Amino acid sequence: KLPVWLPTTSTLEMLFKHHLDIRAVPKKPLLRSLVEHTTVEEDKRKVAMLCSKEGGQEYMTKVRDSQMTLLELLAMIPSCMPPVTVLLEHLPRLNPRPYSLSSSPLATPNTISWVFTLVTEPRPGLATTWMSNLQAMMS
After folding, report:
1. Environment class of residue 110 by beta-carbon count within 10 Å: exposed (0-12), middle (13-18) or buried (19+)?
2. What is the pLDDT along the chain (139 residues), one digit of tens a residue?
């Protein structure tokens, strides 16, 4: 079942670009669904182990603690070809990134500026990387 927060009319590009967090750490229910769409037995065993009770520690180490993304997981199990509906059902919502402006319309009426910390570890941040590139383009 698709989440109620997904728009009912949209393109896949819009959904994956603006609504779904494809960089989120995959949760166990998604891994369980991926098992069904994995064709090579060795790959299937890998995914099944990660989402099993016995593989709990391995899941914590390889997936959660290392902040593995869905793309990294799919690269690890190349025979897994989930239908887009599985991803739409399981990927979390891409949350907005709120930031505060640090400029004053009285002091600099034609300039907007903000302060942010550029996130680089464990991987570059989605919004801060984008804003950093904007800042670099404007300088």
Report:
1. exposed
2. 889 999 989 999 999 999 999 889 999 999 999 999 999 999 999 999 999 999 999 999 999 999 899 999 999 999 999 999 999 999 999 987 777 778 888 888 888 777 777 778 777 877 777 777 775 555 5
Distance of CA 109 to the CA centre of its chain: 36
- For residue 122, the 8-state DSSP code is S
Residues in the chain: 139
Do 47 and 77 form a contact (C-beta atoms < 8 A)? Answer: yes
DSSP 67: T
Tell me the C-alpha distance between 76 and 126, whole Å.
Answer: 23
Using CA atoms in the order 95, 99, 105, 108, what is the torsion angle rounded to 10 degrees? -120
Burial letters 30-57, b for 16+ CB under 10 A, else e: bbebbbeebeeeebbebbbbbbeeebee
Q: Write out the two tokens for 67.
A: 């902040």
